[in-house]
Design goal:
By secondary structure, this protein is of the alpha/beta class. The protein has a single domain, classed as Divalent-metal-dependent TIM barrel enzymes (TIM Barrel), CATH 3.20.20. The strands form two sheets. An eight-stranded parallel beta sheet has the order 1-10-9-8-6-4-3-2. The radius of gyration is 20 Å and the shape is globular.
């Protein structure tokens, strides 16, 4: 985690964005990227297709060459057809499933043209709401087949699954780390892995560091979204605002995993009217502080002892001396 890149949810920067800024940039997405760079962020993920609406890709490349921000990866959003509300890869209609696959392939091609290496799939619409609504085996098989096709489309682009228990569907097809790893085993492609979202992990009643450990054992950790919440919903609060100790433990685990990717702040300052630039700066500041502490803990013999002896008192002493100075 040397020279870590920091990114954030780009749509957060719509709050406070004026028409003159959009006109000066020539496009809403470019204006959002400009604000993100002013917040100290060094990379961004763009949603496909919505962030590319009326956006000339060549102008995007020119903008990136002139500003201190790069595109880390793309993330699919299935909005182009209202039929996606009943699922993209799990949709009962073959034509709709094919539309989702075709749209994702377009996104993968665009990612390649931008020299990105990751397409993130958050499959919020793929799931169910009622008992007897789902043919579980068919939904699962259709999803595995679709993701195999996507992974095979360009083996230089990683396909990363960002799991979440639910929303907008009542139950997601891939709600937790174990189910996601099972799916990846069946997909069986080298260019696949997981994006771990801290608030989603809490929402799934999981320990973030343990989830990262399992991912590293059985697959690849391709992305990390830091945020926080109370485990009842995807709150998208500032990093370390509720679970600083679990955030610190996750960062130590990322060092164990030799994670080299970007840290992406999937937070929602716009939901409560916070200044998105100041919120991003605070996320960066606390994350840098926690990474510094995590590096010391990662090398600590006391931490190794606390873990190997499963000693909570020693662990608490380490946390106290590290965080409460």
């Amino acid at each position: 985690m040397e020279n870590t890149e920091f990114g954030a949810r780009l749509n957060s920067f719509k709050l406070g964005l004026g028409k003159p800024e959009i006109e000066a940039a020539g496009n809403l997405t470019l204006a959002l990227l400009k604000r993100a760079s002013q917040a100290g962020l060094t990379c961004a993920d763009l949603n496909f297709p919505d962030h590319f609406s009326n956006l000339d890709v060549e102008k995007l490349k020119e903008f990136l060459s002139q500003n201190d921000i790069k595109i880390n990866g793309l993330a699919m959003r299935y909005y182009t057809s209202p039929k996606f509300k009943l699922g993209a890869f799990t949709n009962p209609e073959k034509a709709v499933r094919q539309l989702a696959i075709d749209e994702t392939k377009k996104g993968i091609d665009l990612a390649a043209s931008l020299n990105c290496d990751t397409m993130t799939l958050w499959m919020g619409q793929d799931g169910l709401d009622y008992s007897f609504q789902a043919d579980f085996s068919k939904m699962w098989d259709d999803t595995i087949t679709a993701m195999q096709q996507l992974a095979d489309h360009n083996q230089h682009i990683n396909i990363s699954i960002e799991y979440k228990p639910n929303e907008p569907r009542a139950f997601s097809l891939m709600p937790d780390v174990a189910t996601t790893l099972l799916a990846l085993t069946e997909i069986n492609r080298a260019n696949t892995g997981v994006t771990l979202d801290f608030a989603h992990v809490l929402y799934a009643d999981e320990m973030p560091a343990y989830a990262a450990n399992l991912i590293n054992r059985k697959s690849k950790l391709l992305g990390v979204h830091l945020n926080d919440g109370y485990g009842k919903w995807d709150n998208g609060l500032m990093v370390g605002s509720v679970h600083p100790i679990q955030t610190l433990e996750l960062l130590v685990e990322l060092l164990d995993c030799n994670y080299q990717g970007a840290i992406y702040f999937d937070t929602f300052p716009d939901h409560s009217g916070l200044d998105p630039i100041e919120e991003s700066r605070e996320n960066i500041a606390i994350t840098k502080k926690l990474i510094k502490i995590a590096r010391d803990l990662h090398k600590s013999d006391a931490v190794k002892k606390a873990r190997t002896t499963q000693n909570p008192i020693l662990a608490q002493q380490i946390i106290r001396s590290s965080l409460l100075k």
